[in-house]
Amino acid sequence: MPKLNLNLNNAKNDSVFSDAQMKLKSWSVLEPKFTKPNKRICMSAGLTDKHLRRRWQVLDSLTEQDLLLDSFTQTHCHQYANNIEHFIGTVNVPVGVAGPLRINGLFANDDYLIPLATTEAALVASYNRGANLITAAGGASAMLLNEAVSRTPVFAFASLVESAQFVSWVVTQYEVFRQLAAETTRHGKLKDINVNIEGNHVYLVFEFLTGDASGQNMVTIATEHVFSYILEMSPIKPEEAFLDGNLSGDKKANSYTLRSVRGKKVSADVVISAELVAKYLHTTPEKMASFAKMTTAGGLLSGSIGVNAHYANALTALYIACGQDAACVAESAVGITRMEVTQQGELYASVTLPNIMVGTVGGGTGLPTQKACLDILGLAGNGKAKALAEVTAALCLAGELSIVGAFCAGHFSRAHQKLARK
């Protein structure tokens, strides 16, 4: 075994290295082991009673079955068949409601009660406070600016010359690509195709409209169909090709969509009088604008993509409650919050989120408790996805107002102590 050179003197107060000091003679615990695993359960993508029973024969010794497979879950378990593999039960996440939140949007135009699923104390209370403030100010304006879901195949060639020749052929095929994509979906439509050349690599950006679905699977399947055609028919054969070249920003924070879109791009704003700021947030528009200015600089210093206080809190809680893909919070939480003082001494606040990934059909939206949350919003089913995106942006605006107000009034820590340490 190679000699390990650990500088334990510099790490003497670190518990990991303290343990390591005690185990210097037993580093074998870190080596690969090829014995059979001591825990094996029945793995099957299909959801059947037989496989479920066989899994719990193993899991019963580890936890109580009723905690994950309660009577409600047992009654509805077959509804989960298209949403999960190796099913063993459900996890109950507490759901609270914030609002009413008045939204004056192109598609969302109502007072909304918003279900939020979270285990973080103070979160629902904070969004509720922001929602009540916005409603008292007459509501937030919200506008869906753009929408598209992308997938970005990448092709490698021997040289830049071949890349250029490939692109010359590709641009003659756009209508063919649209027809091929349409063969895979009744609801999706290939909206645009962009080309990015990087030396001997070519990235094709396929942008789709996905109707009322979040649409990621729809877009992947449609792009795969076009991708196969390209590999078969292109007169310039790539040396290598992959269905996605990581240019789409799928489930990753990225700066590209700040000027473009992935999912739904929404902007929302509100103007709030100094009196309402004092009543609900116990601070002033001037102090909130100053906080926003200083924290924008802090965000730049930290290398943040966009600037916001905590979009991720609203997005995660709403996505989980309403059956969205929670992993998309990684990209959806990119955006810009601004707060300024108007000439009349009021607070102007706005948010712009270019990556809102939501749908009201497909995915987890039809599951029993998730559909119930969409029903509370009045946004379940066809024709509601654009409205849900505007609600999402307005909810983020409510959260930004509340948390900035809490910092300015010196209440942020106090609220968490009060609500999280009862």
From TrEMBL:
Family, as annotated: Belongs to the HMG-CoA reductase family.
Organism taxonomic ancestry: Bacteria, Pseudomonadati, Pseudomonadota, Gammaproteobacteria, Vibrionales
Assigned EC number: 1.1.1.34
UniProt cross-references to InterPro entries, sorted A to Z: HMG_CoA_Rdtase, HMG_CoA_Rdtase_cat_sf, HMG_CoA_Rdtase_CS, HMG_CoA_Rdtase_eu_arc, HMG_CoA_Rdtase_NAD(P)-bd_sf, HMG_CoA_Rdtase_sub-bd_dom_sf
Alphabetized Pfam families for the sequence: HMG-CoA_red (PF00368)
Protein name: hydroxymethylglutaryl-CoA reductase (NADPH)
Signal peptide: none
Record key words, sorted: NADP, Oxidoreductase
PANTHER family according to UniProt: 3-HYDROXY-3-METHYLGLUTARYL-COENZYME A REDUCTASE (PTHR10572)
